[in-house]
Amino acid sequence: MNHHDSSIPSTDLLTTIVDNAGVSRVKLLPAKRIGSVAKKGIGLSPAFATICVDDSIAVINDSSPVGDMRLVPDLEAAVPLGANLSWAPADQLDQDLSPMPTCQRSAARRLDEDARRNGFEYLMAFEYEFTVFRKDAEGLRLGHGGPGYGLAAFLELEAFLLDLLHDLQNAGVEVEQVHPEYGKGQVELSVAPSSPVRAADTSVLVRLIARRVAQRHDLLVSFSPITVSNGIGNGAHLHFSASTSEGNVFSNGELPYNMGLAGAQMIAGLQENLPSVTALLAPSVLSFDRLAPGMWSGAWSCWGLENREAALRFIKGTAGYGDSSANCEVKIVDPTANPYLVVATVLALTQHGVATQAALKPPVSIDPSLVPVQDRLEKGIEQLPSSQQLGLEFLRANTVIRGALGSDLIDAFVAVHAQELGKFGDLDKDDKIDLHLWKY
Fold it and tell me: Where are the domain boundaries for CATH 3.10.20.70 in the chain?
C-alpha cells in the first residue's frame, strides 16, 4: 500500500479499527512515523478479532496468544481533527500486507468491489442517534428535557450542536441535519450518502468528533442502544441505494412505488435472510431490549413504504427528486454493530437477492403486529429473533452470509457474542446499560 507524500498528514495521527464487539480501538502515531507506518503497518495481536465488550478474549483455538498483524492506516481517508491531530481508519493486514480474513473493513471493500464488477454502485449513509448527558455536582443528568424535536431542547444544546456541526464539516463530513430527537437527551444526526466503506468510516468519525466536542462543553455522549432504563433507545439505521447504467434501482421502474426489478430483488434478498443476520446488525446483549415491537426499531422482518415498524423501510423519495433520493432503510441496526460488517452484510444479501432473482413479498402498510396471524405467512412477516441466543443460532446456520464474509470472520464474531451472552445475558436491564454506556 503506497501513498504519495502529499497524502501524509503533517499532524499526529489517530488511527482506528472497530472490533467484533463494535468497540473502536485506537493507536496514536507521531507525525514523523506516519509515512513509515503507512507502508509497513504497526503491530496488533490477532486476538483482537475475538475481544469482547469487557476486554475479555473469547478463545476459539490454541493459538490466540500467538502471531501478529499489521494495522495500516488508509491515508487516502485521513481527515483533520484540529490543529495538531488527524484521523484515519486502518486495515488489518497480515505480515505480507494482505487482508486478514477477520478484517471487517477489507471484507466490506471486497464485497463493494464485487458489486461494482456486477454493474452496481451503492450509496450508503448511517443515521446516528445518541444521548447527551450533563455533568454536575449531583452526577449525570440528561442533556435536554424535550420536547422531542423542540426548540427548547435545541436551545439547551445550541452551543454543543453548532460546534458539532462545524467540526464535522471541517472534517469533510457533509451533514444534512441535526436536531433534538424524541427521547430526552437524545440527538439525531444525518449525513450525505457515500460509498459503503466511506459510510462506515464516517460512522467511526462522527462518533469520535461528537465525543470530542462534548468534552469541550463538559458534556458526555453515548451511542449505546439504550442509555436510560425508561428511554426509547438509540439506533444507527442504514440507508442504501444502488445504481446501474440505467439509474437508481429504487426508482424509474415498473414495480410498486416505481421500483426497478433489481431493487425489488435486493429488498427480497434482505428480507429473506434478515432473521439470520440480526445478530450482526444488533449484536449486543443490550440490543434485544431495544429490538421489540412498538419501539419503531423494526422488529418485524418485512418491508413497507415509510413503515417505521418494518425492518426494511422503503423511501420512495420526494417528488421531483425520486431518482436521487429513493432508498431503503435498514432499521434494526444499532450502534453496537460494527459498521463495516453492517455495510458488508447489506452488500452481500442484496447482491444475493439479485443473483438468485429473489421474489419480493407484498409490502406491509400497517403496524405488522396488527396483521392477522394467518396473513403473516403470505406476506413473509415474522418477528426477528427476540434474544441474542436465538440470533446467534440463526447466524451460525446461515450459509449465505458465511460464504460472503468467510468462516474465520463469522466464527470470531459468534465467539465474541456467545461469550458476552454467557457472561452478561442474565444481567438485569440497568446492569446491561451500565456495561455498554461508555463503550460506544
Answer: 5-100
What DSSP line would sit under 299-336, residue for residue? -EEEEEET-TTEEEEEE---TT-HHHH-EEEETT--TT
pLDDT digits (tens, 9 = 90+) for 52-98: 999 999 988 765 667 889 999 999 999 999 889 999 999 999 999 99
For the domain made up of 111-436, the CATH class stated in words is: alpha beta
- The string of pLDDT tens digits covering residues 234-280 is 999 999 999 999 999 999 888 989 999 999 999 999 999 999 999 99
pTM value surpassing 0.90: yes
**Where do the CATH 3.30.590.10 domains begin and end in the chain?**
111-436
* Residues 203, 339 contacting (CB under 8 angstroms): yes
| Three-state DSSP state, 80 | strand
Closest CA to 287 of 299, 303, 269: 299
- Continuous segment of H or E residues that includes residue 221: strand 219-222
- C-alpha–C-alpha distance, residues 132 and 227, integer Å: 10
Please name the amino acid found at residue 349: L
> Would you tell me which CATH number, out of the four given (1.20.120.450, 3.30.70.2740, 3.90.1150.10, 3.10.20.70), belongs to the domain 5-100?
3.10.20.70
Q: Give the helix ranges, DSSP H, for 133-284.
A: 151-156, 158-170, 196-216, 261-281
- C-alpha closest to that of 417 among 281, 288, 279: 279
Express each pLDDT in 161-200 by its tens digit.
Answer: 999 999 999 999 999 999 999 999 999 999 999 999 999 9
